## 1
Amino acid sequence: MKQIVKAILPRPALNKAVQIKDWVYFVTLSQKDFNSANLCSSETIPLSDIYADTDITEAWEKDHKIIAKAYGDEDSFGGVNPGDRRALYYLIMALKPKNILEVGTHIGASTLHIARALKQLNANGKVTSADIIDVNHPETGPWKQLGLKKSPKDFATELECIEYIDFDIGPCLDFMNETKQRYDFIFLDGDHTAQAVYKEVSAALPLLNKNGVILLHDFYPEAKPLYPDNSIIDGPFRALERISKENPAIDVLPLGELPWPTKQGTSITSLALVVKR
Ligand SMILES: C[S@@+](CC[C@H](N)C(=O)[O-])C[C@H]1O[C@@H](n2cnc3c(N)ncnc32)[C@H](O)[C@@H]1O
């Protein structure tokens, strides 16, 4: 039945139907706990100083050349865009997290940039990158389906940063509910529905070490378009709107404009930090 509806409905109608289904599920979802005790505040992340840091910029220029040569530097295939990859790299270099959890590996665009920053820091850091599918599968991995040369794992090997990455296959909530590990930095770029982000932030908060960071991707403030193509992903905003309303101690800080290009001829990023007020 699902397949028949998918085949009959045009793409915009299908997207609308998915959005309505998510909304209905989301508004009927019972309230969850949000323990912000270990969450960082915005003062601990001086963004302008981080972007302007000359040591990080020097490291980035060297690393970017190496990564771009092997992996490319395009905004395509559903990975984070080149400007957001750079922002991730700068954040890791500045905040020096030891243990990182990433939700949503896909083609590894963000994973590789995080791992190269960890290599540069040379402090035994590790990123666990979780995806519901086997992103490195030789046939069914998204890299293969999208026509990339290599899987995230093989690119990481080529880029000599494989020892900084653990890949996890399965629903991230299972992983988050089972792991005993604690994290300094959690990047949420998986399922972008409101109900998923609501549950993931609730599950991520207790996993944080003191002053831990939660970074969201695809946060569209006020659920309004950010880019010239007028597209909107409203789930992360809707989730955080509800979380902040239910938990006034939790706020969200969109990174807004970056000092370098991101996508569609803009410098705007959809990255946003979840912070303690
Ligand atoms: C937007 S892509 C991530 C892009 C990636 N960060 C990059 O830069 O290449 C979202 C990914 O989240 C994964 N995903 C969706 N729901 C998930 C879940 N519940 N648990 C883990 N991964 C999930 C999808 O399979 C997809 O690969």
Note: The chain has one domain: 37-276.
## 2
Amino acid sequence: MDVHVDITCRDVSQTVKVRKGVGFQALSAKYKSGIEYDCRASDCGICAIKILSGHECLSAKTPAEADFLKAMGADDDERLACQTRILGDVKILIDYL
Ligand code: FES
């Protein structure tokens, strides 16, 4: 089953279709998403994204992701793309800091 991800970066939006359950890293490998990655292990925060809608359509935060987001003072609508799987239609904002 495919799901849709609406990505907005610097006022430019694109909607991409991915298989349910893939991670944002797989999405980024297939499309030019604009999401940047470094550690891929909840240690750097460069992959932070803001979820505009569809929070319930993402995998639950791992303890490491939750700890890191709390330490960086992230809002509830922020996630680490490197740790998040897409389970349904979502809208995200990147490059918002
Ligand atoms: S790439 Fe470092 S926290 Fe996601």
Note: The first helix runs from residue 24 to 30.
